[in-house]
Amino acid sequence: MSISVLRKKIPLLYIFLSAILGSLITFGAIKIIDKNGSEANAVDTNTTANSYNIRRLSGYKYIRPLVYAEPVSESEKYAGLKADMMNYTDSQKRAGWLTSASVYLRDFNKADWIAINPEEQYDPGSLLKVGVLITYLRMAETNPTLLNSEVVYHGRPGFRYPVEHYRSDTVKEGQKYTVRELLRYMITCSDNHATLYLENYMDTTLFKKEFTDLGMSEPHFQNHNYQVNVKEYSSIMKALYNAGYLSIPASEYATSLLTESKFREGLVKELPASVKVAHKFGEAGNPVSHELHESGIIYIDKNPYLLTVMTRGTDWDKLSEIISHISKMAYDKMNSASLQKVNAATPD
Questions:
Q1: How many CA atoms lie within 13 A of 253 on its CB side?
Q2: Domain for residue 311, yes or no?
Q3: Residue ending a domain, choose from 38, 71, 104
Q4: What are the tens digits of pLDDT across the range 290-335?
Q5: Is residue 293 assigned to a domain?
Q6: Domain range for residue 268?
Q7: CB neighbours (10 Å) of residue 133?
Q8: What is the DSSP annotation of 183-240?
Q9: The domain that contains 128 carries what CATH number?
Q10: CB neighbours of residue 46 within 10 Å
Q11: Which of 155, 213, 221, 291 is least surrounded, with the fewest CB atoms within 10 Å of its CB?
Q12: Closest CA relative to residue 65, chosen from 95, 85, 44, 35
């Protein structure tokens, strides 16, 4: 633009109309929510009429790190999938296998999402182990040698570890491990012995702050009734994928570790073996009522997405089947959308 054009006088009416337009844009702002739940208005530079939930971390002087952003309203694009999932879970309830189920699905390209029964509260069980992993990676930011530190594992004599329906490898008494190896046992094998050892030495203040930072209530180790809903827990996986809470290398390490999970009875069971999934399951409940949950990032070309499923019922294996079937329903829809994007990008 030439200097002469910049120097042209702008009519008073144009200035007046511009001021009105600016006010209207500001009025149609998006919603910003910080970790304390306070709200402020900011202009949505993409769509002035849409409303978004944006979670940022407070407590810094000059920055407000972004954890995630997504539309306030569910996407109509996945309304058919949501209806199919609800029909399926209703059928499982009528059959007596399911007493409650909640689902949260979000694609990472456009932040479109749907949720089924999102307010229902569940005992997260071993899903909290991802929180322990994040805490140790935060601790390693100030102590770079932490993960490679060696310890000798000793269990707690007389301690009654939680009963596990889905068991895998576990650490051995008196054997030497690095902290990194203990984290691997905790995540890939969901090993309660490694987890308890790590919990004894982690920064509990950081652990609790992590949950409040991400919009959940503060967990207490003495409170065995701590509960979360499907949308709340999903914020942990969103933060990992977006590298919005840990550094990029730490987020990459955490998600890569989650792809090595040995639990194959839920989200990944009916998916093609070639599909990478960063996932963690959790089980809870009592002899009468069981809870089985799983949350994972499913990596498919052009359309990576997050799926969290929480279930309550009477049979462990039936609950795992329900999770795997819901995962297959989501995959079929998301993969179809991914293939459409690939075809659209391929020249004739």
A1: 15
A2: yes
A3: 71
A4: 999 999 999 998 889 999 999 999 999 999 999 999 999 999 999 9
A5: yes
A6: 76-345
A7: 25
A8: HHHHHHS--HHHHHHHHHHS-HHHHHHHHHHTT-PPP-TT-TT--B-HHHHHHHHHHH
A9: 3.40.710.10
A10: 8
A11: 221
A12: 35
